[in-house]
Amino acid sequence: MKRGLLCSLAILAGAALVHVAAVWVVPRAIMSRVLTGLAGQAGVNHFVHPPLATSDSRTIVRPSPDLAYSSAVFDVRSRPLHVVVPITEPYTSLAGFASDTDNFFALNDRTAGADPIDVVLVGPSTPRAGLDGLRVIESPSDRGVLLVRRVVPNAEAFPAIDAVRHHASAEPR
Predict the structure, then answer these.
(1) CATH number for position 92
(2) Which domain holds residue 23?
(3) How far apart, in whole angstroms, are the C-alpha atoms of residue 95 and residue 106?
(4) DSSP string, 1-50
(5) In angstroms, rounded to a whole number, what is the distance separating the alpha carbons of residues 47 and 9?
(6) pTM (2 decimals)?
(7) What's the CA gap between 74 and 128, in Å, rounded?
(8) Which of 7, 73, 81, 85 is most buried, judging by how many CB atoms fall within 10 Å of its CB?
């Protein structure tokens, strides 16, 4: 009886450890790797604009060949980040992902209410003075990733969309 109880407790403890790893450790480890890779391309608080995806593209999991992606690692520990994303037709969206991979906000050209999408990003440690009247987005973490997706309806449309997407900015405020 005692041996069975100890075995059951050991199994429960093992299951609890696996659960904690799956829910807490793994997402943060994945995002840490993503942050390191993206920050290595352009640093922090700067958008990267890779070419259109092909069958060989794997910087974004299962990239869509009809989307032009732009991404930026953000760090708002010491200052808010002013993010401006010009809109292109037929569709543009901006999303934020926290350090645990959670998608904490998404705006698109239909919900943003303005051209360009214009927000100020803050995190738990960010000083908040002087932000009254601005569209403030609160991240649950001080570091994470911003992802812009733009629909590219055909190859001929890409050069114009590509020119506009290079005007996206993420500047400390």
Answers:
(1) 2.60.40.1610
(2) 1-173
(3) 4
(4) -HHHHHHHHHHHHHHHHHHHIIIIIHHHHHHHHHHHHHHHHH-SS--B-P
(5) 49
(6) 0.78
(7) 17
(8) 85
The vertex-31 CA angle with 94 and 68, nearest 5°, equals 35
Phi/psi of residue 82, nearest 5 degrees: -90, 115
For the stretch 32-53, pLDDT in tens is 777 777 777 777 887 888 888 7
Sequence length of the chain is: 173
The tens digit of pLDDT for each residue in 83-122 reads 999 999 999 999 999 998 899 999 999 988 778 999 999 9
**Which two three-digit tokens encode residue 63?**
């990239």
Q: How many domains does the chain have?
A: 1
Residue in this structure with the two tokens 């991240």, named with its chain if needed: 139
**Which residues does residue 75 pair with via DSSP β-bridges, in sequence order?**
143
How big is the CA angle at 55 (ends 49 and 58), to the nearest 5 degrees? 55
Residue in the block written with tokens 């352009």? 42
Q: Following CA atoms 46, 141, 84, 169 in sequence, which dihedral angle do they give, to the nearest 10 degrees?
A: -10
